[in-house]
Design brief:
Elements: E1 8-12, H1 16-25, H2 34-42, H3 51-58, E2 63-67, H4 71-80, H5 89-104, E3 108-112, H6 119-125, E4 131-135, E5 151-154, H7 157-165, E6 170-172, H8 181-184, E7 192-197, H9 207-215, E8 220-223, H10 236-239, H11 246-255, E9 256-260, E10 267-268, E11 271-272, H12 281-287, E12 291-295, E13 311-313, H13 316-328, H14 330-347, H15 350-364
Helix pairs in contact: 3-15, 4-5, 12-14
Length: about 375
């Protein structure tokens, strides 16, 4: 009989640029106790923060969370538990994580992939837990098999099919929105006509050309990491306002009359599928009440009603047309934003997702 409220240990991996910035901007942070240091990192609102853990605990499940590549944080945990890890950075990380797993003994070890621990280490950790779960919706790491996992979850349907073809137990599991964000956002003047928040990386090959075309036509403000990969001559350089993370990103979204979305290209089995709406921006933008303009994808109607709860486009010309329409009809755009936010807050929060997650976990325990 599976436990009604299984215990979890959730393993995060944060973007190195974000971690460098946080510890640079807060030089006292690395000296703080583990619990306080972790709280400070989560309180930035970066990525998922502790949305999963907090929502699971609210449902009655014990849940702990660690950030595997936040090295000052992890060294602090080791010191507080009398450990002196040895070897290179990867050896030390694995040593500390293993000690955390052995100390906490969770029933479910839940790993957000883009994780530096590796298949062999994760497979070895199965002896300490009842269920090893991986969640991934980003490009797969070359050489990884992901066979260590008892269960894979992905919000990206092509990855679900890929893992199933490889013989892995896999289920579709959507992303969501942390409703607590709204308690931390001040009322903000809408002073950005059109924004784009995102990254410039190998998984975004068409993004630069698309944004460059828009820059020549509209007043577009761009935020994100990886601008160094963009040519110096690009008009994006003049529109770029730097990377934004966590609550800083949410404030930019809330300041925007319209914010643009463009999905990354995720190759699966050597092919890129552009049929599905999937990324976090769908929920982040609508969750804070901003009018979102996103690609018209086949599954989007199952998430949001196109052109009623979010604006949609099929090509660059229609994207430009919809931007101009929203700017010329601000009250209609605000109504779309209100409907989109209502849909997210009533169907797409992480409390909704954790109820769905527990149903899946109990079936596999």
């Amino acid at each position: 009989m599976p436990p009604a409220f299984p215990s979890f240990l959730l393993i995060h991996t944060y973007h190195p640029d974000f971690l460098r910035r946080v510890y640079r901007d807060h030089p006292d942070l690395a000296a703080q106790p583990f619990d306080l240091q972790r709280r400070r990192l989560f309180d930035t609102g970066y990525c998922l923060a502790d949305a999963y853990g907090a929502s699971l605990r609210a449902l009655g499940c014990p849940a702990e969370e660690i950030i595997v590549n936040a090295d000052p944080l992890q060294r602090c945990w080791a010191k507080e538990h009398g450990l002196t890890p040895e070897g290179n950075v990867h050896d030390r990380r694995r040593s500390i994580v293993e000690a955390q797993i052995r100390t906490l003994r969770p029933e479910v070890l839940y790993v957000f992939e883009w994780c530096p621990l590796g298949d062999a280490f994760l497979k070895d950790m199965r002896r300490y837990v009842r269920l090893l779960v991986g969640q991934v919706a980003s490009p797969l790491v070359a050489g990884r098999t992901y066979e260590a996992y008892d269960l894979m979850l992905s919000s990206w349907p092509p990855l679900v099919e890929h893992f199933r073809r490889a013989g892995l137990r896999t289920e579709h599991f959507r992303l969501g929105f942390d409703q607590r964000v709204l308690d931390r956002l001040p009322d903000t003047e809408v002073d950005l006509p059109v924004s784009f928040v995102g990254g410039f990386a190998p998984s975004h090959p068409d993004r630069i050309a698309w944004l460059e075309r828009l820059c020549r036509e509209i007043e577009l403000t761009v935020f994100g990491y990886g601008i160094e990969t963009v040519p110096e001559s690009s008009p994006l350089r003049r529109r770029h306002q730097g990377p934004v993370w966590g609550y800083e990103m949410y404030r930019v979204l809330r300041r925007s009359r319209v914010t643009l979305n463009r999905h990354a290209q995720i190759p699966v089995g050597g092919r890129v599928c552009a049929a599905f709406a999937n990324n976090m921006r769908l929920y982040e933008a609508t969750g804070v009440g901003t009018c979102l303009l996103t690609e018209r994808r086949t599954n989007l109607p199952s998430l949001f009603e196109p052109d009623r709860e979010v604006l949609t486009y099929a090509d660059d010309a229609e994207c430009l047309e919809k931007v101009r329409w929203a700017l010329e009809h601000p009250e209609a755009a605000r109504e779309i934003a209100r409907r989109g936010q209502h849909r997210t807050l009533h169907e797409h929060t992480y409390r909704h997702r954790m109820i769905e997650l527990l149903d899946r976990i109990r079936r596999h325990l």
